[in-house]
User: Which sequence fits this backbone?
């Protein structure tokens, strides 16, 4: 089995990085982040020029009588910190703001208010520096479908500035570690299952040796064996290389087994944040064993019941 320690070392991680004294520091700091979708009264140049205080454009979720000009708050004054080397999970129902939060961290969206820093760099004022430290895998990852995984990843490697004869060997090692058979590596992507394509997306993200890996539902569509292989790689990245990982998932078992801490988000707000163990301990199971799914349903399910009864 290929060890990602040696593989990522060849990508630029120094050997001393893996053995130095562990010093926990803040990898991600999100302070009062706010993102809405709709008409902006305050253009980006005004938001960039402010020095102190919050912008005055905070708007609640609303719709006018005709159903037009609807403003939807996707991330509603969210604050949390992710420590270096931590696997931090974000759970929530569909439409709760998980993917929007990932896009804010990835500099793909700009926050309307608040502050987000990745390893000390501001995602609004220093996006290029942030982008050099991160990579992202989304559930809707796209490829050149007529090309093979090898061709897609070699192309991606060149975009990352990598060159030389070692690229193909490194691509082959990463794809093999993720469970792809060698014959599949040279077949067109359009002939592969969605789950196999998702593995290629994860492999592409690993090419840049990110310090922060953003995983937006990374195991969606994978069969049980492939899901376990991807989870093993996630653990290895954290344990052997100190990679900080922020992932969203609907799989409660995955979150409980992988994550050091979990934030549960609903309607753009964090409703709970703690270790899986602590979250379960806070819920009285009446003598029965509590799961993270029980916690999730307790926090989110009651609200859904109340909304359904209110209709």
Assistant:
């Amino acid at each position: 089995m290929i060890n990602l320690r040696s593989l990522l070392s060849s990508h630029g991680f120094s050997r001393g990085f893996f053995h130095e004294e562990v010093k926990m520091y803040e990898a991600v700091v999100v302070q009062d982040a706010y993102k809405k979708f709709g008409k902006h009264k305050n253009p980006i140049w005004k938001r960039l020029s402010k020095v102190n205080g919050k912008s005055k454009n905070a708007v609640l979720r609303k719709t006018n009588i005709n159903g037009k000009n609807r403003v939807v708050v996707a991330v509603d004054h969210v604050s949390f910190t992710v420590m270096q080397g931590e696997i931090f999970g974000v759970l929530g129902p569909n439409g709760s703001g998980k993917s929007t939060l990932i896009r804010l961290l990835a500099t793909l969206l700009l926050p309307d208010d608040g502050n987000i820093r990745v390893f000390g760099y501001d995602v609004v004022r220093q996006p290029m520096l942030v982008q050099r430290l991160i990579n992202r895998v989304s559930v809707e990852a796209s490829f050149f479908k007529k090309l093979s995984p090898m061709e897609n990843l070699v192309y991606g490697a060149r975009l990352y500035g990598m060159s030389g004869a070692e690229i193909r060997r490194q691509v082959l090692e990463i794809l093999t570690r993720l469970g792809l058979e060698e014959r599949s590596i040279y077949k067109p992507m359009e002939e592969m299952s969605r789950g196999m394509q998702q593995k290629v997306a994860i492999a592409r993200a690993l090419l840049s040796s990110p310090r922060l890996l953003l995983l937006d539902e990374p195991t969606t569509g994978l069969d049980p064996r492939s899901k376990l292989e991807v989870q093993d790689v996630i653990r290895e990245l954290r344990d052997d290389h100190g990679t900080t990982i922020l992932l969203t998932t609907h799989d409660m078992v995955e979150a409980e087994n992988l994550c050091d801490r979990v934030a549960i988000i609903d309607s753009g707000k964090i409703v709970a944040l703690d270790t899986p163990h602590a979250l379960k301990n806070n819920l009285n199971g009446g003598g029965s064993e509590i799961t993270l799914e029980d916690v999730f349903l307790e926090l989110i399910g009651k609200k859904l019941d109340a909304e359904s009864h209110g209709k």
In short: Strands lie at 26-37, 72-83, 87-91, 113-118, 121-122, 134-137, 212-216, 244-248, 261-266, 269-274. Residues 7-22, 51-65 have pLDDT under 50 and may be disordered. DSSP finds 13 helices and ten strands in the chain.
